Amino acid sequence: MTATATDREEGTGTGTGTFTLLLFAAASTFTGGLETLHLRAPTTLRDLFRTLETRFPGISHAVLRSAAVTVNLEYVDFDPDEVEGGDERDGERASGGGEGLGLVINPGDEVGIIPPVSSG
Fold this sequence. Notes:
Keywords: Cytoplasm, Molybdenum cofactor biosynthesis, Nucleotide-binding, Phosphoprotein. By secondary structure, the chain is of the alpha/beta class. The chain has helices at residues 26-30, 45-55, 59-62, and strands spanning 3-6, 18-23, 34-40, 43-44, 68-71, 74-75, 104-105, 110-114.
């Protein structure tokens, strides 16, 4: 069974529509077993990380700094040192394939948070 949640809080995102956030491995564990969230769009990757930190205190340091992020199945490059603050540069206004925390996430997009996985 997949645990899901829908964002109903005001101030998350800046318009109508939603995107799907998929949480894998440690990201799902950190959120109490949630695997899918539906959040308001458009927003930026930076604002998504801030929203997650507000809802799940400590996730930035424990998960997001070392996680890979995909938007529409394309990896997004970002500086992990910017996750907990830092640079306010704008990213590209395109779905997927962009660079940085300023990347705009649009309605209908699918974002994945993929923490590193250890094997033994």
